[in-house]
Amino acid sequence: MPDANTSPTPAVRVARAEQARAALRAWNGYDPSPADEAGLDAELDRRLAQARQP
User: Fold this and answer.
1) Which residues lie closer than 8 Å to 31 by C-beta, 6 or more apart?
2) Mean pLDDT of 7-34
3) How many Å is the Cα radius of gyration of the chain?
4) Residue 36 and residue 12: Cα distance in Å, rounded?
5) CA-CA distance, 54 to 47, in Å (whole number)?
């Protein structure tokens, strides 16, 4: 089990994201388009930048 000082490799992160998308699709039909994903990523980036400001 990884500890707080390690982070998953890019390949592990991709695999986990694919698993999460598959689970959401199976559970409630959620299946964002690439454009939707880009919009969500941009919003997350905006919020993270805002949170980092003093």
Assistant:
1) 21, 24, 25
2) 94
3) 14
4) 23
5) 13
Which percentage of the chain shows pLDDT scores above 90?
A: 78
Q: Which pLDDT score is estimated for 45?
A: 96
Would you say residue 26 has pLDDT above 80? yes
Q: Is 31 in contact with 21 (CB distance < 8 Å)? A: yes
User: Helix/strand/coil (H, E, C) string of 1-54?
Assistant: CCCCCCCCCHHHHHHHHHHHHHHHHHHHCCCCCHHHHHHHHHHHHHHHHHHHCC
